[in-house]
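Hi there, hope your week has been kind to you so far. Thanks so much in advance, here it is.
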Amino acid sequence: MEIDEIILAAPVMPVLVIRELAHAVPVARALVAGGLEVLEVTLRTPIAMDAVAAIAAALPDAVVGVGTLTRPEEFSQAAEAGAQFAVSPGLTQVMLNASAESGMPYLPGVFTPSEVMTARDIGFEYLKLFPAQQAGGPGMLKALAGPFPELKFCPTGGVGKENYREYLALDNVASVGGHWLAPAELVAAGDWDAITELAAGAKP
């Protein structure tokens, strides 16, 4: 799959922080059961890559990506774990080179118009606005639509159940990412049915 296919596959992408490996497959299965098959596992815990590998092995129909990539070697590690796409909070030449070597679909993060221009000049058409709330939220995206009408964004960071529809209503927002679909308290309690309900209710 190309990055546009991945980003457009669902309006909402669950962003997962897996703290216990035993939770990885059940939470992923619950989200897929709710209709969200594109999942981003963030590298914010030591077991994140193991979680990706477990999900990829158990749920071959899910599209599992790795988020919070900040070092070039993490592209090859993600590919070895079975990840199908990569997401980073920013974009550097080193990360760009590593993404090219890996051949993995890549969604880089941007925060300012200059960073948007840099990414566009490289050839990216889909970008992650991060952290979206601190960057200006929906207002920032409306402002970016004027000079960059050809670009599409996946905002994350401060996007939740209270405001995600406001983002999705914008023409230049392809999808949104957030943690609210698998909140820590439900994961810790093993309440997979509640997570499935949250996923099923995540509509524009």
Summary: The longest helix spans residues 21-33. DSSP finds eleven helices and nine strands in the chain.
